[in-house]
Q: What sequence folds into this?
């Protein structure tokens, strides 16, 4: 599934589209229906924890999903709050730091995002995720030549995954 998501993101990066990649198939559908029910349950669990002023453990991947959800719905204050909690629980974890870079890109703090992504370049990260964020950043900065470099790296990686998807 992650490979398909990567291909869709790649197609998105190669175009000049500026609207969200995923959207509800019908405007009449409830907003939450476009999300996986497990994600909605996870976000509700997280929000209940905040409401009750409790502290629960969430693994890195759960935090990634929650932060992605908030960024997707453009609730950037909630994304930042979740990001800060994730950084406290998983200090300096590369995937959480990559989410921080994504947040910085969305909040147009490009210089901070460049510095962080440069620091993460040699971290143990999924290449596709890293190149998507670099591509997003350079696209936002209108640096098409650097954006193209990261799109090509992402495309090269995705081409090696396509045969694995048909197995």
A:
């Amino acid at each position: 599934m992650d490979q398909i998501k990567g291909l869709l993101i790649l197609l998105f990066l190669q175009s000049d589209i500026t609207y969200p990649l995923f959207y509800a198939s019908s405007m009449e559908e409830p907003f939450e229906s476009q999300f996986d029910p497990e994600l909605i349950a996870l976000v509700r669990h997280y929000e209940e924890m905040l409401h009750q002023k409790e502290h629960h453990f969430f693994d890195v991947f759960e935090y990634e999903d929650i932060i992605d959800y908030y960024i997707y719905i453009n609730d950037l204050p909630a994304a930042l709050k979740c990001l800060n909690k994730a950084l406290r629980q998983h200090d300096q974890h590369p995937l959480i730091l990559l989410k921080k870079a994504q947040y910085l890109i969305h909040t147009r703090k490009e210089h901070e995002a460049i510095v962080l992504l440069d620091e993460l370049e040699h971290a143990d990260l999924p290449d596709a995720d890293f190149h998507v964020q670099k591509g997003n950043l350079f696209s936002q900065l209108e640096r098409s030549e650097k954006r193209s470099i990261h799109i090509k790296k992402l495309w090269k990686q995705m081409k090696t995954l396509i045969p694995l998807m048909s197995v």
Notes: Residues 7-30 have pLDDT under 50 and may be disordered. The chain is about 70% helix and 0% strand. The chain has one domain: 2-16+32-161. The radius of gyration is 16 Å.
